[in-house]
Design brief:
The chain is globular, with a radius of gyration of 19 Å. The relative contact order is 0.15. With 356 residues, the protein is of the alpha/beta class. The protein has one domain: Rossmann fold, CATH 3.40.50. The protein contains 12 helices and 13 strands. Bound molecules: nicotinamide-adenine-dinucleotide. The site of nicotinamide-adenine-dinucleotide has 28 residues, from helix 1, strand 2, helix 5 and strand 5.
């Protein structure tokens, strides 16, 4: 595989830092652009210290900066985004601006510089779904009112997808979209309402786990290791250009079932309490029923399928959160940063076209 220089926007975040680990392990060069709004130095300091990664602190809304960095890379993985239901509901305008402006800047710069770009979208773009059917890339979308702040994220990410598609169709840009369903693993924090790290931390310390609503809503959780393999496969396969791919674990679990599973894996004596949505979130929240990905498109193209089980993922999150809690309590000075792994790259890529 040819050595390439990747620009990862949002590379100091949960997913971005794991992608950076995998690329460095594959001997690629990486530049991270991050404004540290939700990213953490902890996630990447082992990479920076090793000299393997350049870190640029700045925003994807800075068009001049993005243009300079884009000119210098072979491929951009655009992961920078406002993330997390709590953040989205609390600050919908910021969510919209951060995603819409940032994506506009990044994708137009990629197109101008003739560089490949992968846009990280989300299963949220499918909106509410009460169907038992798995969602495929062409499924209809049913969004709630634009006046419900929960939908700001889906609106903004849908716009990002449309921009990516527009640049591909009208300017021949090499854009690709990954629609990520819930992804979990080490380095995901509970600060912005992420359910798995929240449950795991409470189970470790023996507090009750708060399930919002009646817990019958279901989700599918993918190990970040499998998500990274999917993102890299989409970024490298020639046949992925101009397309969108679901990336998720097709196996659903209810949130109540998840709480029970976390308690069991931790070996915790925690109980479960039910919290009405109106108490859990500010006004503007709307719950989704079920959401399950059909990943046939990605499987057909590159042979991708999840390799890790939910229990594998939960066990890795539990190890990470135990170390986090020990560090917070001053019982552990530093964590072994090598929660990285050699991520399988499923296809032999061809180097993207360079600017003339
Ligand atoms: N984790 C999931 O389950 C999931 C699901 C669907 C989609 N996604 C998408 O994957 C991507 C990564 O998400 P994550 O879970 O790693 O979240 P994260 O919050 O850990 O990472 C997002 C990163 O983007 C950075 N960022 C935000 N705004 C920025 C800006 N204007 N300029 C530069 N950097 C900025 C943040 O500081 C952070 O490091 C996002 O685009 C998200 O929408 C994630």
């Amino acid at each position: 595989m040819p050595r390439m220089r990747y620009l990862i926007t949002g590379g100091a975040g949960f997913l971005g830092s794991h992608v950076a680990d995998a690329l460095v392990a594959g001997d690629h060069e990486v530049t991270i652009l991050d404004d540290f709004s939700t990213g953490k130095h902890d996630n990447v300091e082992h990479l920076i210290a090793s000299g393997a990664v350049d870190l640029v602190e700045g925003s994807v809304t800075d068009a001049t900066l993005v243009d300079d960095l884009m000119a210098d890379c072979d491929c951009c993985l655009h992961l920078a985004s406002a993330v997390g239901v709590k953040l989205v509901v609390a600050r919908p305008l910021e969510t919209l601006r951060r995603i819409v402006q940032g994506t506009d800047v990044v994708i137009s710069a990629a197109s101008r510089n003739d560089k490949r770009v992968v846009f990280a979208s989300t299963s949220e773009v499918y909106g509410k779904s009460s169907s038992e059917e798995a969602l495929h890339e062409d499924s209809d979308r049913v969004l709630g009112s634009a006046f419900k702040s929960r939908w700001s994220y889906a609106i903004a990410k849908s716009y990002g997808e449309a921009i990516a598609h527009g640049y591909h169709r009208e300017h021949g840009a090499d854009t690709r979209v990954v629609r990520l369903f819930n992804t979990i693993g080490p380095r995901q924090r509970d600060t912005y309402g992420m359910v798995v790290p929240r449950f795991v931390r409470r189970a470790i310390v023996g507090d009750d786990l708060s399930v919002y609503g009646d817990g019958s809503q279901s989700r599918c959780f993918l190990h970040v290791r499998d998500a990274v393999a999917a993102i890299l496969a989409v970024s490298t396969h020639e046949g992925a250009t101009g397309r969108a791919f679901n990336v998720g674990n097709p196996q659903p679990i209810t949130i109540l079932g998840l709480a029970e599973r976390v308690i069991e894996r931790v070996g915790s004596s925690s109980g479960i309490t039910f919290v009405p949505y109106e108490e859990a979130y500010e006004d503007g929240f709307e719950e989704l029923g079920k959401r399950r990905p059909d990943t046939t498109a990605l499987h057909s193209l590159v042979g991708w399928r999840p390799m890790c089980t939910l229990d594998d993922a939960l066990d890795d999150v539990i190890d990470f959160q135990r170390a986090e809690l020990a560090m917070e309590a001053g019982q552990l000075e530093s964590r072994d940063p090598s929660s990285s792994w050699p991520t399988p790259i499923l296809v032999q890529p061809a180097a993207p076209a360079r600017a003339a």
